[in-house]
TrEMBL record:
Keywords: Cell membrane, Disulfide bond, Glycoprotein, Golgi apparatus, GPI-anchor, Immunity, Inflammatory response, Innate immunity, Leucine-rich repeat, Lipoprotein, Membrane, Repeat, Secreted, Signal
A Gene Ontology molecular function term of the record: lipopolysaccharide binding
UniProt name for this protein: Monocyte differentiation antigen CD14
Principal location listed in the UniProt entry: membrane
GO biological process, one term: innate immune response
Any single Gene Ontology cellular-component annotation: membrane raft
Highest taxon listed in the record's lineage: Eukaryota
Membrane protein topology class: Lipid-anchor; GPI-anchor
Subcellular location per the Swiss-Prot or TrEMBL entry: Cell membrane; Golgi apparatus; Membrane raft; Secreted
Amino acid sequence: IRGGGHSLDQFLKGVNTDPKQYADTIKALRVRRLKLGAAQVPAQLLVAVLRALGYSRLKELTLEDLEVTGPTPPTPLEATGPALTTLSLRNVSWATGGAWLGELQQWLKPGLRALNIAQAHSLAFPCAGLSTFEALTTLDLSDNPSLGDSGLMAALCP
């Protein structure tokens, strides 16, 4: 699903809809892989989509060429998003700067096995805001010019 580079602010009015209202419809979808891209997405809308996908059978999510704008909603008591095995992020920028991975992680159920981050605008994650990816077996950061000569140690958890 490509947004054509448009802002998706117009869809914010449906963000507070309880996803349980359409849980049966989402459960009936046989979507295992989903790619979203080429849009400006308010963080509230992205979180609402993740909450709705929590009812799906989705295993692989790719976010590509996205600009996530605005603050994220308050952290949930427990993850309500999808139980992904693979998450791929390519050229995704976040209004929150370096804290984006920790904020995104809070909305995903545990069990992520592969994390691919390419062309990241920031890889300086504050370690205090990250939980352990206990099931993670693959981490691909290979297409990130921002790593520079100093490599991973200087970029991750400064």
